[in-house]
Amino acid sequence: MAIRVPVLLRQAPYEVIVGTDILARAGEFILQVLPAGKCALITDSNIAPLYGDKVKASLEGAGFKVISVIVPAGETSKSLTQAEAVCDTLIAGGLDRHAHVVALGGGVVGDLAGFVASIYHRGIPHVQIPTSVVAQVDSAIGGKTGVNAAQGKNLIGSFHQPSLVVADCATLETLPQREFDEGMAEVIKHAVIRDASMLAALETYTRPELPALIARNVKIKACIVAEDEQEKNDLRALLNFGHTIGHAIENTAGYGRYLHGEAISIGLAAALHLSVEKAGLARSDANRVLAALEGFRLPVEMPADLATNDLLTALRLDKKFREGSIRFVLTKALGSAYVSDEITMEDLRGAIEALRK
Asked: Beta strands 14-19 and 65-71: pairing type?
């Protein structure tokens, strides 16, 4: 049974369809929102052997003419160079402004394919078929697309909402344990900023509960996105809890050393530390969140070889800075969060150093 979660945007609302073993119906679902025609199925070298043929057959069965584009797996594919190569493939394949893109994969594929769709012929429709926990609960929803620059993560991108998201929880069963666990960092983040009761569910979590858990998180993300589509007020910024320092870790360590959720987990630990010190969060609540992260084998300590000054340099390039001032997400109580402009660079230095103990 599929769960349909609406993303109620004013201009272009769409649905997130969550279910198990629904990849074979992808073409059917997409045909309900986009006309049959040419499309590019963009995936990566890990996902293509697992699900590429199934999704392509489903699309073709619904009347779509499919060009498959396979990029190397990994964060390094989130680059302008790779985006240009994909665009060249689409041009060679004869895709015009009436075509569309289908992104099949995790967050890297979704961000890259969505970005390509946003710039190809000045923008064509795209559909997200996320296959990782991070992508299903977070990155596939909300229209943020982009690639990395040498100086920082996601510094080049655009808002380009998908026409549909199809989240098949069966794809999560083939994830290596480490990749499954990293996605839970985003789930735990949602619990901290919007749904404290979900922490209790995570403490007794079992894998068969996946569809309900994914749908619960999709509803949180969909609600926030609908209220602040392009991050023009502080509401959508709440989704960045833990991400300021987390992105700095990814950039400083070099993309690939840490999975996204692993870096975000350390960033969450830093944000919890600052929330205790500056926002009055109870230490017992912070410890409860840290225990949830550690329960999914996620790191909560700062690596000794990442220099504090290097991390602070990377932080200054973060998109969450506004004219040089820091906008940092804190929580006073689990289930809520707010954006503070009172955190200083010295506060960030202190949080980073505190995680080394």
From this structure: unpaired
Find all residues with CB under 8 Å of 4, minimum gap 6, and list them: 15, 16, 17, 18
In tens, the pLDDT along 90-103 reads: 999 999 999 999 99
Domain ranges of the chain: 3-174, 177-354
- Residue 285 and residue 250: Cα distance in Å, rounded? 26
d(C-alpha 353, C-alpha 236), whole Å: 28
Q: Are 286 and 275 in contact (CB under 8 A)?
A: yes
pLDDT in tens, 316-340: 877 566 556 788 999 999 999 999 9
The span from the CA of 36 to the CA of 55, in Å, is 15
One-letter amino acid for residue 11 of the chain? Q
Q: How far apart are CA 137 and CA 60, in angstroms?
A: 28
One CATH from 3.40.50.2300, 3.40.50.1970, 3.40.50.10710, 3.40.50.720 for 3-174 = 3.40.50.1970
At 74, list the tokens: 């990994």
Tokens, residue 89: 């493939």
Q: How far apart are CA 320 and CA 326, in angstroms?
A: 7
For 177-354, CATH gives 1.20.1090.10
